[in-house]
């Protein structure tokens, strides 16, 4: 018994030592102090925002854009979700990562193969009679690596986390496209309203010019007054052409988002009746956990953590069980006879001793990737809170600005009316009337621009919060049914 045990104990000694050291191959823990700290509450919002929590992987799939109550916008977003190339690229990347996960998991399974070969041997490999001979073999073989040190399991875990990260990036691509379509569409609608106002002003200036030219021909006014009106008319026409150019660019950008050629895409001019969603009071800051880009960064960090364990496991031996079974015969006709059967089983242990520092470099590289992923996650979270604060402050200040601008429009309109009456009565010059009209135009346009900025900031807040702001809604939020064309008087 002792004679049998001693060789066995000697053969298994390296394996036993490796098993004792296996715990060193586990992935390192992440220091909680290195993770980003969520603020107690958002700075903006006048205290309406509840306790913020650390982001997690729970992206939202809500149809938040329906809160704008615009069927044209709904159709554009639906087309973009179906045909946008950025979304399709992200979906392909997800499919690729899932295929890589399947390939990684396959390394943990038993590998089985079949084969056959014919060998002609002579010389030192000849048979007992010294003559060259032929050996025909056919059979199956299998191998299975014993993952005693968790290398394969951690590699599979890292691949699964990569797939989760890609899934979150797909959600992020969808949210970005939804927001870009909404912003582009609302910008076009705002330009349409502004163009209509400018065209109306151009018409008014043309009427004024015609009247001014008749008065000049009659000798009632000097040529200077005609030159001033012509200047205002030309400048306003130039403004209108600039708005036309900007609208064409936005329309072309929308075509790309919905997967159409710019030459084939047209967004017809219509009344701007898109509702402006209203932020409900007391929205919880916990909705920030739904941001898909944060979920992707978190999963990438965890994948990098798992790969450190994979790199550390390279210091331990690979142990595999192997086996084969089949038939071997010098005569093809006798190959599948029972007497020609052959089989074999074995175990393989492999442990590199000198590798020029390759494994040590692999561990250091994996640790560096983990540090980079952790820093990227922290940065993503900080940017997320910054995005929310930006949009909240924009909405608050734009609301105040809109109220002030409404008062300015009302005052400018009244000043124009009074100046027109005084001009007809000969109490003020035409220059005073033109100044009043120019002031009214400027204030009406600024009111439209403030209104457009409110739409943009609302979409920006939705995107910053990960798609909507209700804790359980499917993207629905309260909407104010205010016609944008009526904004500011």
Q: Which structural traits does this protein have?
A:
single chain, 489 residues, alpha+beta, Outer membrane efflux proteins (OEP), 4-stranded antiparallel sheet, two-stranded antiparallel ribbon, 57% helix, MdtP/NodT-like, Efflux transporter outer membrane subunit, transmembrane, OMP_efflux, lipoprotein
What is the number of beta strands?
Answer: 6
Biggest beta sheet summary: 4 strands, antiparallel
> Quaternary arrangement of the chains shown?
single chain
CATH class membership = Mainly Alpha
CATH topology: Outer membrane efflux proteins (OEP)
| Number of H/I helices | 8
Beta percentage is 5-15%
Describe the global form: elongated
Q: Poorly predicted ranges (pLDDT <50, ≥5 residues)?
A: 7-23, 472-489
Which CATH architecture is right?
Up-down Bundle
Helix content: 55-70%
What is the CATH superfamily classification?
Outer membrane efflux proteins (OEP)
Please give the radius of gyration in angstroms: 37 Å
* Number of separate domains: 1
Instruction: State the order of secondary-structure elements, H for helix, E for strand.
Output: HHHEEHHEHEEHHE
In whole angstroms, how far apart are the ends?
104 Å
Would you mind describing this structure in some detail?
- By secondary structure, the chain is an alpha+beta fold.
- The protein has a single domain, classed as Outer membrane efflux proteins (OEP) (Up-down Bundle).
- Helix content is 57%, strand content 10%.
- The chain is built from eight helices and six strands, in the order αααββααβαββααβ.
- The chain has helices spanning 2-21, 71-83, 85-106, 151-217, 223-257, 292-313, 358-424, 430-464; strands at residues 111-121, 133-146, 276-277, 318-329, 341-350, 479-480.
- The strands form two sheets. A four-stranded antiparallel sheet has the order 1-2-4-5, with no helix packed on it. The protein has a two-stranded antiparallel sheet with strand order 3-6.
- Helix 3 runs antiparallel to helix 4 (151-217), helix 4 packs antiparallel against helix 5 (223-257) and helix 7 runs antiparallel to helix 8.
- The radius of gyration is 37 Å and the shape is elongated.
- 33% of the residues are buried.
- Residues 7-23 and 472-489 have low confidence and may be disordered.
């Amino acid at each position: 018994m002792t004679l049998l045990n001693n060789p066995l104990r000697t053969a298994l000694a390296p394996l036993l030592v490796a098993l004792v050291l296996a715990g060193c191959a586990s992935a390192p823990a992440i220091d909680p102090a290195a993770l980003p700290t969520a603020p107690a509450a958002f700075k903006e919002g006048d205290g309406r925002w509840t306790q913020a929590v650390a982001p997690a992987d729970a992206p939202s799939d809500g149809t938040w854009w329906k809160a704008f109550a615009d069927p044209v916008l709904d159709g554009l977003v639906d087309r973009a979700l179906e045909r946008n190339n950025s979304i399709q690229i992200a979906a392909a990347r997800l499919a690729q990562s899932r295929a890589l996960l399947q390939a990684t998991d396959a390394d943990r399974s038993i590998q089985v193969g079949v084969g056959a070969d014919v060998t002609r041997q002579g010389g030192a490999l000849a048979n007992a009679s010294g003559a060259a001979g032929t050996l025909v073999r056919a059979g199956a073989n299998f191998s299975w690596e014993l993952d005693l040190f968790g290398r394969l399991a951690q590699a599979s875990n890292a691949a699964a986390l990569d797939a989760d990260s890609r899934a979150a990036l797909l959600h992020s691509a969808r949210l970005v496209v939804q927001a870009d379509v909404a912003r582009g569409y609302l910008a076009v609608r705002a330009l349409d309203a502004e163009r209509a106002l400018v065209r109306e002003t151009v018409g008014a200036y043309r009427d004024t010019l015609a009247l001014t030219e008749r008065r000049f021909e009659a000798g009632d006014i000097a040529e200077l007054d005609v030159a001033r009106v012509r200047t205002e008319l030309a400048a306003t026409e130039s403004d209108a052409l600039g708005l036309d150019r900007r609208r064409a660019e936005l329309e072309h950008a929308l075509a790309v988002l919905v997967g159409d050629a710019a030459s084939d895409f047209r967004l017809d001019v219509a009344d701007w009746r898109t509702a402006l969603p209203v932020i409900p009071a007391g929205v919880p800051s916990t909705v920030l956990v739904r941001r898909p880009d944060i979920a992707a960064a978190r999963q990438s960090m965890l994948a990098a953590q798992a790969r450190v364990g994979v790199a550390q496991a390279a210091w331990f031996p690979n142990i595999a069980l192997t086996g084969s079974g089949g038939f071997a015969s010098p005569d093809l006709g006798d190959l599948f006879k029972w007497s020609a059967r052959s089989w074999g089983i074995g175990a393989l242990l492999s442990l590199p001793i000198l590798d020029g520092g390759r494994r040590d470099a692999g561990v250091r590289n994996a640790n560096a990737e983990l540090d980079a992923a952790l820093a990227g996650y922290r940065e993503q979270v900080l940017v997320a809170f910054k995005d929310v604060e930006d949009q909240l402050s924009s909405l608050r200040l734009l609301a105040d600005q809109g109220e002030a601008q409404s008062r300015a429009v009302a005052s400018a309109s009244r000043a124009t009316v009074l100046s027109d009456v005084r001009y007809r009565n000969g109490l003020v010059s035409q220059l005073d009337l033109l100044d009043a009209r120019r002031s009214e135009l400027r204030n009406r346009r600024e009111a439209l621009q403030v209104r457009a900025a409110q739409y943009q900031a609302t979409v920006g807040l939705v995107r910053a919060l990960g798609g909507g702001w209700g804790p359980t809604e499917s993207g629905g939020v309260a909407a104010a049914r205010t016609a944008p064309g009526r904004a500011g008087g």
